[in-house]
Amino acid sequence: MSANSLPEGAAVWHSLEVDKALDLLDSNADSGLTPQEIQQRLEKYGPNELEETAGRSAWEILLDQFKNIMLLMLIGVALISGFLDVMRLQSGGLKPGEVPFKDTIAILAIVILNGILGYVQESRAEKALAALKKMTSPLVRVIRDTRFVEIAAKELVPGDVMLLEAGMQIAADGRLIEQSNLQIRESALTGEAEAVNKQASLKLPEETSLGDRLNVVFQGTEVVQGRGKVLVTNTGMTTELGKIAAMLQAVESEPTPLQQRMTQLGNVLVTGSLILVAIVVVGGVIQDGGFKNIQELLEVSLSMAVAVVPEGLPAVITVTLALGTQRMVRQNALIRKLPAVETLGSVTTICSDKTGTLTQNKMVVQSVSTNNKTFRVIGEGYAPTGDFQLDGQKISLEESPEISALSVACAICNDSVLQKEQGEWAILGDPTEGALLTLAGKAGIEKDQWNSKLPRVAEFPFSSERKRMSVITQVEGVATGEASSRGIDPAIAGFLESEPYLMFTKGSPELTLARSTQIHLGNYTGPLTEEHRQKILAENDLMASKGLRVLGFAYKPLVEIPPEGSDETSEQDLVWLGLVGMLDAPRPEVRAAVQECRDAGIRPIMITGDHQLTARAIATNLGIAQEGDRVLTGQELQRMTDQELEQNVDLVSIYARVSPEHKLRIVQALQRRGRFVAMTGDGVNDAPALKQADIGIAMGITGTDVSKEASDMVLLDDNFATIVSATKEGRVVYTNIRRFIKYILGSNIGEVLTIAAAPLIGLGGVPLTPLQILWMNLVTDGLPALALAVEPPEPDVMQRPPFSPRESIFARGLGSYMIRIGIIFAIITITLMLWAYQHTHAAGYQGDPETWKTMVFTTLCIAQMGHAIAIRSNNRLTIEMNPFSNIFVLAAVVVTTILQLMLVYVPPLRDFFGTHYLNMQELGVCIGFSALMFVWIEAEKIFLRIMGKKAV
Description:
By secondary structure, the chain is of the alpha+beta class. The protein contains 34 helices and 28 strands. Helices cover 46% and strands 17% of the residues. Helix 3 (58-65) crosses helix 5 (102-122) and helix 27 runs antiparallel to helix 31. The longest helix is centred in the last third of the chain and has 41 residues, at 720-760. The model is unreliable at 1-5 and 478-486 (pLDDT under 50).
């Protein structure tokens, strides 16, 4: 078969016999490919590498920042302002000492700073693909042209025969040709905690899920033990890892709710500004009967345009989000993308992986069945402390000696080590065997002590074909010639009469039971009746239905050490000890976190690659699902259309045996239903869904680099409960953002109306220059707004459903508040402006007639200080609040007021900003008018309280 006629990857390799797969790829299990075939296939399939699609360049990201409509308007304002300054220079219209182009330079500086701020936030390169590439092995052993050779992994082609051994990272997907005791850890790809026993001889159904394909291996997974020979079937982007890379790159980033709201805000402000500018210019032209005052009208228009744009808002929002990230880090949530801080507050659904996220990633024995009794085992993690309960009551081991007997088997038939490291109990070896050592420890059986009482002299190791292992030990008390009972621990006194050896067997309950003929009944043995067998099998089925992994234990006295390879004959006529059921136990704090999610209107969903019974047991235990709720498997999901999945996605809370593309489809279906989705995960298989989700949450301890780079947030303690804290912080941040947007834009509307009113009521000239407006928007608005950003949370923040992520920034009365306060602001300031104009143009006035403009400027600035104090609460009066609960607001008000007075009374600043000296009477009038703003807002609260309404 030529390279051109090779299958295109459509073959379902796990459903083919080995010989059929070799035929399809025109390869030979013993000799591999020839150099000519290798070259042809390299040309056809390319190197075994993950390909990267081109993203936006740094320049494109930077230029995109200046497509913002508010920045575009400011650029236009700067250019027109510069043009007017050029005209004044040419006509000699500049006042003595006046600096030309200062407005233009100030506005362009703000534009550039905002552009850089946006660029820094957005330019963080996605490194998820780079992390994926690290998972590919650099070197691999293959058979080529009948010779064993070591080649670079990128040179692998379909049809190569690859050799596997313990400790290797697999370099490509392939069909097993042969194997010996081969175990592969696939948790990063499938989400399963346990290493998988591979079997080359199997032929599986086409629809078999990824985690159950026992006759194939996958790129990026790790060989735990054993060896194997593999036919390479897929390389590069056609591997399962490559499909994940393709999905990662296909996912397009959607703007966050905050970004969407800021875009909407910009559109509304610019549109409104342009309408007002048109009204003022057209009204001025009509009033003047021509264009003789067009320059003055243009200056008014420029000031209005600058006034309407909240230049300080992007910086305030960025600082607010940055402060939120600092608070979240202290709660073990690391934010990778700044807008995610606010986005968290909008989450309606959390899709969580099971292994290591909802569970401890530690196998823990939950149930023990011996002598027709089933005991519940109490305890957490690998700590060898806990109790045994029967029918809800704690029992003593003296009452149930069969527990001690079974625990000896758990400790002796075991290759792992339980040890304490830095105050934490940890397992060196297989997690399943670790759970058995912990169980033995709870029964007072320590492996080290029993290794001296029953030293191992031989073993029949575990194999995937036999599904069991046996350990032969020497009974020290008997071997030294002592009496049969003397010197033997009471826990095994009933195991033997005078035999010098004991064999302990563990493995598949059905297969171990089938080889048993007797049963251990406390301190003696009896015949294993058919009734016993049926009860044991029924208990096994009950444990399995609860999602437990079940092992059966037995023993056999021996008069001599059995010869090597005699396992088939030696492992007969066993004495049955009992069943042990274990589970990757839920984290103890997650149940409360799930309940908090529900109280906050957030729906938790479990999505896992693990078995459906295990998934159901964990989800029901944690309160994610109820008894009898439907579990949707990967096979069922595969057969569903996108529309069918969308119809079911609100009804299902447990997804089991799913593959990476399934996780992505679930998230997309939820998003099409209008849900705002957070996805937690730690494996490579989670990365595409993490990137697609509105908030991707990776695990910091167990998480792969791939998942972390694809995420928006990393849980440093892998604690599901941390998500609740982060969500609360997100809600607080959004509430505070709304608070200071009300504060900033209310004053901006007042500024615009005041500027527009000046020429229309015949005062002549612009009351505020663009530079003064920039000062107000950046300093007198910006500093108090930053202080409002750290306002503490309200007590019911996690007792209400999330606000819709698609709600307008003006929703829930914010828009009407801004307009209402803006109009009041304008009425107060215009009234002051009329009085000040008459005052400064009155006969005998000693100061500069233009001083009225400084009075308007000062009134607007100081009025904002009263606004900042009053807006801290929507409902409570200022006198009802602790003034020191947010000391930053008081500090900002004092500092900003001092800075504003410096502009009036410090000569260099007065000259630069074009202000005039105010006498004490004029300053007193300005403060008096400014105080009316505070009085009005407090009066509104009293009115709404009387009317029984809640403020926005």
